[in-house]
Structure formats: structure tokens, C-alpha cells
Recover the amino acids of this structure.
């Protein structure tokens, strides 16, 4: 069996005690020193670990449990230019009652929409317990002035969003201006009020695993409630390896600071098999505390249909087909 | 080595979605000739292979049913051309599987190629036979057209490993259906080789998927599968066929019951029409002239 991949042993700033954030984020150079002081990622080890955890065989009752858990963790997402209020309402109805033929099916965690659709989603989901998540900050590119981004967040929160999915400024991150990224996240967090903040790194654009680890720590230091892999709008989205890396980051962050942070892989997770692999990663890396939709989410749309078809297979013994789920 | 060459054994594989996978289960079983001598190991498919094959067939259905009948005819004719080129191989495999002399096996293979050509010709003619303009008492056109049923599970005949196989596959796909075929359990090798022919004859991947293994094991999940629209029970014995028909009734699959067939006889259009749905549309004829409009 491969051993666990290298987990970041925290370097100086955290071990000196005192409020953990203060030292590391005091200045641009301090932040850079801290982020670059994180141990490098063993690429081969990380990918081998993620692949080996993907080979677990999850069957029968364990599979039924995993399917229901995965359904309850879905942020059912529609982020298209062609979104209409009708489509958002249809999606909301599906989130509340994913399989009308089987009322024991759990609800999804949230519906994820663009800010201008947040009010529609909030009205459709009122009283159901399903959250409204809204992307903001000039999603998906994040190329806009800070006040435009903050106005975007304010609008979404005012429209009733319970959760805000923001994108980081990858241009600033890749050119080493970490404090700018940090301050932007802090400013967005301040606008969120009681809404939980998910910070999207767009891991497909960060080039290296080292950068993903740095971005994870940066986001957590800045007060993210969730760290999220990607927007779903680029070629490379959530992979087992980059999600494993982020799970290690939240595990280590809690060890150091006592603060628990959620993880949300998004994009490219389409099958039940994939979803169960991610749940194994969560359990084996972060631990059982994260096996709850308060701490782990899937950003997905077509995944739900596959989970429902597998659920029908388990309950009836017959293979189901796309004629028996709603295709949105 | 007397002749200086190592013999090259062929690994027979499944044909699913245009690819040649081994069974998901990793199992194989021994295939013997008519006298009980070992010929090769064939994959023993599991229900998960059947499931994957249905997914592949469903994926291919849109493109294949949407292709013009003329185009489907061309492609099926191309299959016959490719079969002709592999004639020697099929003659040998059929002779071994069915215990026929070389000349009898050659006659069987020729008949199978001819059958394929015959069905290729039917693709753009079946509409004229079973569709048409219906007479109605009103100012309307009333038109019926045949449409493919969808994904068809085909249990190939157990005895006739090649002519029978071709006679059950070709009519299903000629009309625009896609097929998941369970080959003869004891003589699957000609069917698995047919997969190689189909892969090289412009037939889109997934239109025909060929599984080998125990018929009962594969037929049960196919008969109860909610995304299979029809099932041809030719290769099932009476007891199994009854069970499968009950399972197939759950989502109202079209079912073709097993019957005694002389595969060398003229097949007629029976198998072509078994997996068709009739779509009928009404269309107003428009204004009737000076006496006024009809609507």
C-alpha cells in the first residue's frame, strides 16, 4: 500500500503561537514567505494515493449509504447564459424532490445559480431547507474591479443567497501578488454577512499542485468557509488528486487552528462511481467529520441523474435508464 | 519448432461501443468444437457488461436512427463486402462450431452474406411496405411511417452460430434500431469475429454490441432493464423465454417469442417489422377552394 502523501508540516509562523493569521498575513512579503514555506507536493505520491483510494469496492448497504450521502451533498448547478426563471424553478423543484417516484430520496444541499437568478431560486426553495448558492465576483473569470465584484456579492446576498461562491483573481495569484488575493477574499467575506463563502481557485488554471496547496492555505487564512476546486468552465476541473490535496489542507488547518473548513469539488463529476471515490477520499483524508453536507459538497448537475438511476437499481434490482429521470 | 514459427493464438474479445473489451468480470470460459475439442477461450460476460452494452447502444441510437435509410443501406452493404473478404475465416469457424464439412460451411457463410445484402436492400423500402397514406373521411392527409423501437436485446440462436446470428442482427439494425446481442453460448466465436467485421465497415460504434457468455445470466438483466425497448428471445429455451417475457413486461418491451425457424429459408419481412413503431400524423389539406376553408 502506498503511504499517505506528504502532509504539510507547518513552518514557523503558526508554531510560534498567538493568533495564527496575524503573522502570516501581516504584509505581502510575510504572506509570500509563509505560502512558499509550505512543503512542496509530492506529485507522484499524491496521484498514486488518490488513484489507490479510488479502487475501493463499495457495495450493497455501504453503496446505498454513499448514494444518499452524495445526493444530500450536491449543489445542483445551472450556470448557463441561457438560464431562464422557469429553468431555475424546475431545478429547485428537483432539488427539493429529486426522485418523485421515491419520496425517501434525500434533498440536495443547495441550488447554485447566477446572482440575477438568486431571488427566483430563493422564492422557489423557501421553507424547503435547500440552500440558495450564488456565484458572484464576476464569475467565472473574475476580471472586474473590486467594487463591481463587491456589488455583485451584495446583490446576491440581498436576493436571498445563503452561500456565495467567489472566484479568486488568478492573474494576481499567478504573478505572486498574494496579499491582493487575500484582501479581496477578506473584503468579499465582509460583504457576505451571514452567508457562507466558498472560494473557487480554478485549479485547472493554477498549473501546479504547489500552487493549489498555497491557494488553499491563502483562502483558509482569509476566512473562507469552503474551498472549491473550479468553476466548471475550463478544461480541467475537479480531479481526485487536487481534491485530495485540498482535503489534506483543511485537515491540517483544523489541526493547527481548530477551525473546520469545507471542501467542494466542482465540474467533471458525472457518475456515481466518481462521487463515491470522492467520498472515500474525504473519509480517509479529512475524516468522518467532513462526511456531512455542511462540510463537503459536489458542484454538479448531471451527477444527480446518475445517482438517482443507481438508487433505483438498488431499490428495484432492475437497471434504470434516462427515461426515468428528468433531463434538465 | 519444426516449422520455425510460434503459433499465434487469437484472444477473442467482446464488441461493445465500437471497442473490444474483455469482460468486466475478468472471466473466460472454454469453447469447444462439435466434437468436444478445445478451440479457444471466450469472455464470459457479466450483467455489468450487459449494462455497459445497453449504455453504448442507447448512445448510438440517436445517430443511427437519424441516419437516412439510404445511408444505412450503404453501410450494411459495406458489412457484406467486409464479410466476403473474411470468407475463409468464417468458413473455418462455422465448420468447427457446427461440425459441418468445409463445403457445407462455405454454403452457410455464402447464405449469411447474401442475407446481409438482402436486408441492406430493405432499409429504404420497408417504409413503403408498412407505412403509407391512409384513407380518411375528411379534409386531411393521414400518413403512417415506421419508426425504430430503440435499443433491442437480441438472444442469438444457439444452434446456427452464423447464419442464424446474421438473420437476427441484420433486420434489427436495418430499420434503425441498435442492438445488444448475446451470442450462442456454446458457439460464440463466429459472433465475436463478426464484431471485428462490423468495426471495420463504417458501422458507428455501439449500433451492434456483442456479448458472449451464459445466455440465462445475461438475458435476465437485459429483460428487466428499463432502458431496453425490445427483446428478441430466439436463443432462449421455453422455460427461460417465459421468465424473460414476464420480466420484459415490466416496461412493456416489445417481445419476439422463440419459434422454430429454418434459417436457410426465405426470411420474409417478419423480423424487420417486429421492432418497428408506427407513427401516424394528421395534416390538414388546406383551403378547399371557393366553398371556403376547412378550418
Amino acid at each position: 500500500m502506498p503511504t499517505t502523501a506528504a502532509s504539510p508540516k507547518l513552518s514557523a509562523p503558526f508554531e510560534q503561537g498567538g493568533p495564527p493569521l496575524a503573522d502570516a498575513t501581516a504584509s505581502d512579503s510575510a504572506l509570500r514567505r509563509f505560502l512558499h514555506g509550505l512543503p512542496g507536493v509530492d506529485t507522484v505520491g499524491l496521484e498514486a494515493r488518490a488513484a489507490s483510494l479510488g479502487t475501493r469496492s463499495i457495495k450493497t448497504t455501504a453503496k446505498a449509504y454513499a448514494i444518499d450521502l452524495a445526493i444530500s451533498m450536491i449543489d445542483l448547478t445551472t450556470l448557463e447564459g441561457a438560464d431562464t426563471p422557469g429553468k431555475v424553478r424546475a431545478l429547485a423543484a428537483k432539488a427539493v424532490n429529486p426522485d418523485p417516484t421515491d419520496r425517501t430520496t434525500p434533498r440536495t444541499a443547495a441550488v447554485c445559480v447566477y446572482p440575477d437568478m438568486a431571488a427566483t431560486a430563493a422564492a422557489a426553495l423557501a421553507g424547503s431547507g435547500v440552500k440558495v448558492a450564488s456565484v458572484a465576483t464576476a464569475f467565472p473569470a473574475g476580471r472586474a474591479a473590486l467594487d463591481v465584484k463587491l456589488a455583485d456579492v451584495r446583490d446576491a446576498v440581498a436576493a436571498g443567497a445563503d452561500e456565495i461562491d467567489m472566484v479568486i483573481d488568478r492573474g494576481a495569484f499567478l504573478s505572486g501578488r498574494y496579499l491582493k488575493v487575500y484582501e479581496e477574499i477578506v473584503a468579499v467575506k465582509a460583504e457576505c454577512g451571514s452567508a457562507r463563502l466558498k472560494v473557487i481557485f480554478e485549479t485547472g488554471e493554477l498549473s501546479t499542485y504547489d500552487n493549489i496547496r498555497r491557494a488553499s492555505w491563502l483562502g483558509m487564512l482569509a476566512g473562507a468557509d469552503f474551498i472549491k476546486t473550479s468553476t466548471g468552465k475550463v478544461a480541467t476541473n475537479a480531479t481526485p488528486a487536487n481534491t485530495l490535496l485540498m482535503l489534506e489542507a483543511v485537515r491540517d488547518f483544523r489541526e493547527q487552528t481548530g477551525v473546520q473548513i469545507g471542501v467542494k469539488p466542482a465540474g467533471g463529476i458525472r457518475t456515481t462511481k466518481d462521487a463515491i471515490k470522492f467520498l472515500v477520499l474525504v473519509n480517509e483524508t479529512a475524516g468522518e467529520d467532513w462526511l456531512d453536507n455542511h462540510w463537503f459538497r459536489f458542484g454538479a448537475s448531471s451527477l444527480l441523474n446518475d445517482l438517482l438511476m443507481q438508487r433505483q437499481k438498488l431499490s428495484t434490482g432492475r437497471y434504470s435508464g434516462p427515461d426515468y429521470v428528468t433531463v434538465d | 519448432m519444426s516449422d520455425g514459427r510460434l503459433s499465434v493464438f487469437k484472444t477473442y474479445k467482446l464488441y461493445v461501443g465500437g471497442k473490444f473489451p474483455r469482460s468486466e468480470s475478468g472471466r473466460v470460459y472454454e469453447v469447444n468444437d462439435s466434437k468436444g475439442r478445445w478451440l479457444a477461450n471466450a469472455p464470459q460476460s457479466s450483467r455489468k457488461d450487459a449494462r455497459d452494452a445497453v449504455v453504448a447502444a442507447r448512445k448510438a441510437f440517436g445517430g443511427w436512427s437519424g441516419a437516412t435509410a439510404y445511408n444505412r443501406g450503404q453501410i450494411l452493404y459495406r458489412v457484406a463486402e467486409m464479410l466476403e473478404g473474411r470468407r475463409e475465416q468464417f468458413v473455418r469457424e462455422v465448420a468447427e462450431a457446427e461440425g459441418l464439412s468445409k463445403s457445407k460451411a462455405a454454403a452457410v457463410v455464402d447464405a449469411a452474406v447474401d442475407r446481409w445484402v438482402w436486408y441492406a436492400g430493405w432499409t429504404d423500402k420497408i417504409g413503403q411496405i408498412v407505412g403509407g397514406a391512409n384513407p380518411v373521411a375528411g379534409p386531411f392527409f393521414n400518413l403512417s411511417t415506421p419508426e425504430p423501437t430503440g435499443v433491442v436485446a437480441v438472444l442469438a440462436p444457439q444452434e446456427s452460430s452464423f447464419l442464424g446470428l446474421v438473420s437476427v442482427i441484420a433486420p434489427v439494425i436495418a430499420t434503425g434500431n441498435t442492438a445488444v446481442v448475446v451470442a450462442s453460448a456454446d458457439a460464440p466465436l463466429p459472433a465475436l469475429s463478426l464484431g471485428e467485421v462490423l468495426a471495420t465497415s463504417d458501422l458507428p460504434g455501439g449500433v451492434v454490441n456483442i456479448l458472449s457468455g451464459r445466455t440465462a445470466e445475461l438475458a435476465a438483466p437485459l429483460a428487466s432493464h428499463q432502458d431496453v425497448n425490445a427483446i428478441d428471445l430466439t436463443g432462449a429455451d421455453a422455460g427461460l423465454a417465459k421468465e424473460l417475457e414476464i420480466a420484459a413486461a415490466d416496461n412493456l418491451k416489445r417481445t419476439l417469442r422463440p419459434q422454430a425457424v429454418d434459417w436457410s429459408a426465405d426470411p420474409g419481412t417478419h423480423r424487420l417489422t417486429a421492432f418497428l413503431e408506427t407513427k401516424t400524423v394528421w395534416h390538414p389539406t388546406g383551403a378547399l377552394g371557393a366553398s371556403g376553408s376547412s378550418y
Q: What stands out?
A: The beta strands of chain A are 74-77, 110-113, 131-135, 163-167, 196-200, 226-228, 262-264, 298-300. Chain A touches chain B at residues 312, 317-324 (CB under 8 Å). The first helix of chain A runs from residue 12 to 15.
